[in-house]
Amino acid sequence: MAEEVSSQMNSLSISETNPSSSATISLVSGDDIVFKVEPTIAKEMETVQSFIDETDGKITTIPLPNISSHDLPYVIEYCEKSIAGKITKEFEAEFVKKLNNEEVKELFLAANYLNIKKLLDFLSQVIADRIANKSVEYVRRYFGIENDFTPEEEAKLREELAWTFTGVDPDDEDEN
Amino acid sequence: RVKRVKEKIVCILLLGLNVSTLVNTEMNLLHPSHSRRRTPNASLSPTFIPNELVTDVLSHLTVKPLLRLRCVCKSWNSLISDPTFVKLHLHRSSQNAFYTLVSGIDFIVASFRFDPLLKNSPIIFKLPKDPYYQSNNNEFQNVVGSCNGLICLVGSSRVNENIECWFRIWNPATRTLSRRLGSFRDDLSTTRYNFTFGFDKSNNTYKVVALTRKIRVFTLQDNAWRNIQNPPEVHYYAMAKLVYLSGSVNWLAIHNHFGLTNKPFVIISLDLVTETYTQLLPPEGEVSFINHNLTVLNDCLCFSHDFKQTHFVIWKMKEFGDENSWTQFLKISYNNLQIDYPFNGFNLSLLPLCYSEKNDTLLLTNQYREGSILYNWKDNTLEKIHGPWFYTCVNFVESLESYC
């Protein structure tokens, strides 16, 4: 019961900061925080838009159990810029500067879940850029992948690809 | 209770979504472990990225890091070598294609994006050490084309009274060079061969086209030469340079009934998929048919020629295949280029290589004086490039493609 009350309070406080019209869409994050957005924002999120379309627009409160209240504002910010046609290289650089590696991955999953192609493609490139100069070990940790090569197999492959191992950044554990 | 609420939400979503969306979101819905009901940094295990998204991320990488990441695990190793992934990567990489200038000295390929040409020094691709390569004074290696990140090199050497030709496929990004392919011997007196290299989309294979008195096609898939039918009219292939564009091989031919028409030239276009020909007319109007060249300039078919021994003219076919789209692109006086009439007795030695619309700059090469010129058509300024002499320009894209 306590959880419900707190989420209602949260939703109230969010509503106050975002005065809404009757047409607004309520996006409910996984941790039950309500974010009111303009229908044009919802249109950017294919998953949300098809949900609205399927119910002929009768349902305007959309639960997004896989997206946290920490990530959703970033997604909304990106969609707003996208609608305004203000996605510039500068904006994108600023946008990701604030995000650590885990946050980028979470947003990437959110973009995939919501089916926002531009954001998905952009974050895909961001992750690629972040791992481009990293060591094999770093990338394994980044994706939580276990090495299933035998030491001999790995040594052989590394020897074959030795020239690709130049210019790799030293691992920095603090980056996450 | 929380679990029940979750299930309810999942049901609402399942009922509400159409099938195509369901496929996309299925993974997240069915694997609640992927949901992130936590504040950042609260968990020790890294956020799990499903495989199809990993593939997408990897397709954004350039070739060198990608090859290194084959060492991550077995599944990445096979993914990065998988033909479907190679195509996906090529598709992405194509958006970053750049013009590569090829220099003939010491068989190096000097590469740089054309726009910042004046500021950046070129990146030099070095041909890998080649166990098959036999140094021979009569041997040369020449770049005849580039397609999907592969560069086709043609070599030849003299064997008694014969000439032996072959080619190799080189991927500078993965640093792989094929063995000699398509080796054949011919009488030295044979008209010199012209080659080009292209991709046959339908059959998913690369083809090398050789033009002499006959037209021969080498398909990489079959590893064999075939003679194909000649174009419908018999042509004398004077100074025919083969150029590859949009899945077709093009060259300039002279009508057999030369002299009887005021349109002695025709462009023959061979479709690499169907291996059939179409004919295109060169531009009409004040066109001189002396000292002509057919080239590909910034992905456009171009026809360049001399004008009254005073000017150099370049025409652009804006829509490939549409004869009505010929537009005069530039007309530059030799005075402005600070060169004498560049005619060597056979053909015009001036060849346009590429241009930058943004910088109003054209790069030309003077084939018989072994120099390159950067010409700004807006300010009418000129810079001569010393150093490696560029003789061709290819639109290059980094890829994982191999020649097999």
Automatic annotation (TrEMBL), chain A:
- The SKP1 component dimerisation domain covers 117-163
**Keyword Transport among UniProt keywords:** no
Which InterPro entries does the record associate with it?
Answer: SKP1, SKP1-like, SKP1-like_dim_sf, SKP1/BTB/POZ_sf, Skp1_comp_dimer, Skp1_comp_POZ
Q: Does the keyword NAD apply?
A: no
Signal sequence region: none
What ranges does the record give for the region Disordered, renumbered to this chain? 1-23
Q: Where is the SKP1 component POZ domain?
A: 25-81
Cite a single GO BP annotation.
Answer: ubiquitin-dependent protein catabolic process
UniProt keywords (A-Z) are: Ubl conjugation pathway
Q: Please state the pathway this protein functions in, per its UniProt record.
A: Protein modification; protein ubiquitination
Report the PANTHER family cross-referenced here: SKP1 (PTHR11165)
Query: What's this protein's function?
Result: Involved in ubiquitination and subsequent proteasomal degradation of target proteins. Together with CUL1, RBX1 and a F-box protein, it forms a SCF E3 ubiquitin ligase complex. The functional specificity of this complex depends on the type of F-box protein. In the SCF complex, it serves as an adapter that links the F-box protein to CUL1.
Family to which the UniProt record says this protein belongs: Belongs to the SKP1 family.
Quaternary structure note: Part of a SCF (SKP1-cullin-F-box) protein ligase complex.
Recorded protein name is SKP1-like protein
Give the organism the record lists: Pisum sativum
TrEMBL record, chain B:
The coiled-coil segments of this chain are: none
Per UniProt, residues of the F-box domain are 43-88
Tell me the domain of life: Eukaryota
The entry's protein name is: F-box domain-containing protein
Record-linked PROSITE patterns: FBOX
Q: Which InterPro entries match?
A: F-box-assoc_dom_typ3, F-box-assoc_interact_dom, F-box-like_dom_sf, F-box_dom, Gal_Oxase/kelch_b-propeller, SCF_F-box_component
One Pfam family hit: FBA_3
Q: Which organism is it from?
A: Pisum sativum
Q: Which SMART domains match?
A: FBOX
